[in-house]
Amino acid sequence: MRSYRYRLFPNRTQETVLISTLETCRRLYNNALVERRDAWKDELRCVIYREQQDALPGNKDEYQQQVHSQVLQDVLRRLRKAFDAFFRRVRNGETPGYPRFKGKGRYDSLTYPQSGFSLSPDERRLTLSKIGSIRIELHRPLEGRVKTCTIKRDVDQWYVVFSCEVEVEARSHGGTAVGVDVGLEKFATLSDGTVIENPRFLRESERKIKKRQRRVSRRNKGSNRRKKAKKELARAHRKVRNQRTDFAHKLSRQLADNYSTITFEKLNILNMVQNHHLAKSIVDASWNTLIQYTTYKAEEAGGKVVLVDPKNTSQMCSRCGMLVKKDLSVRVHSCWNCGLAIDRDLNAALNILNRSGWGPPDAPVELETASNREAPLVVEG
Ligand SMILES: [Zn+2]
Asked: 307 C-alpha vs ligand 1 centroid, how far in Å?
């Protein structure tokens, strides 16, 4: 399965319909949540998805006149998913967190799970049942068999995401294995010495986000000026999201074309969510996107992605395995045991490669000098 995302350009009327459709979906979600909650509270009875789905046609006036029936069913399935996750957390003894109501404007997407949507033959319009024929920009070709169609609102822009089934032919890749260390200082360091610098736009966007955050907190709560500032902040976030996606597409293409086995550290999702440091959170999100894109592109090219345990990758000596403690400010790994002295990120990348099982048993590593360093991969930001 692969996702294709395109920008939509609804006219005024269509945008109004889209917004009210999202509102209807939100209302259904919240009402169905109330039904589940009350049935349990009052009669100790579990309401299941099937019941709620079967009850839908009875609510004809309320929902069905305005929204395609399958879109409504998808709303109920999302609620089921929220409850499934809740029950799973209860079973596992975690903090359960009962499914929450969706506040106004907090319901941002709707899905046609099978039908009710079609592309015009010239691929310039997307027709959505009960909404209309909306202008679409197919900036890259849509491939495979379309399974679902999701319409998303992103602040004040609209997008469609097609989820497609794509056949991948088995191919073999002639390239070599590589380890990738993703960091804060540089975007990534490869085990062959290639350095991918942080794209400048990420830093600039970060600055902009900070500035706009400050602006929001200066404005009075509930004021129109604050609302406006919040919208500007959301736009800045959207911009960095789009830039990140774009960058990840380009870099993952380079990696998939050049290497047969690409190894990353396994991401700690829990750490990611708890991280409040802005720069770090942006890097983590970029990293996640990069791994996702590289995985499917590598598969297409006949290669693969391996994820390894991140423990001690920066402290361990990639040549002799000795632990060489160093804090973040120390940029060179210098081993007192075997004498290896290389850039700390390169050392980490070599450890990552070694853990994939594809690195040479004791990798001969040369100190990187200007003369033996190959031309770096060029990724345009
Ligand atoms: Zn060593």
From this structure: 24
Average pLDDT, the chain: 86
Task: Give the Å distance between the CA of 374 and the centre of ligand 1.
Answer: 24
Residues 6+ apart with CB under 8 A from 125: 119, 133, 134, 135, 136
Q: Are residues 230 and 132 in the same domain?
A: no
Q: Does the global pTM surpass 0.85?
A: no
Cα 64 to Cα 115: distance, rounded to the nearest angstrom = 16
Classify strands 176-182 and 259-265 as parallel, antiparallel or unpaired: parallel
Catalytic residue status for 23:
no
CA 62 to ligand 1 centroid distance, Å: 70
- Cβ(22)–Cβ(110) below 8 Å: yes
pLDDT of residue 107: 94
Among 358, 124, 148, residue whose Cα is nearest residue 263:
358
Domain count, the chain: 2
Q: For the chain, first and last CA: distance in Å?
A: 27
pLDDT number for residue 366: 44
- The identity of residue 90, as a single letter, is V
Determine which helix (DSSP H) or strand (DSSP E) holds 43, and give its type and residue range.
helix 12-43
CATH number (domain holding residue 186): 3.30.420
Q: Which of 181, 192, 284, 343 is catalytic?
A: 181
- Burial class, 331, CB count within 10 angstroms (exposed 0-12 / middle 13-18 / buried 19+): exposed
Query: Do 260 and 343 fall within a single domain?
Result: yes
Please say if 181 is a catalytic residue: yes
pLDDT for 324-361, tens place per residue? 999 888 899 999 999 999 999 999 999 999 998 766 54
Residues 360-367, mean pLDDT to the nearest whole number: 46
By residue range, what is the domain housing residue 93? 2-165
User: Is residue 38 flagged as an active site residue?
Assistant: no
Percent of the chain that is helix, strand, coil (3-state, to 5): 45, 20, 35
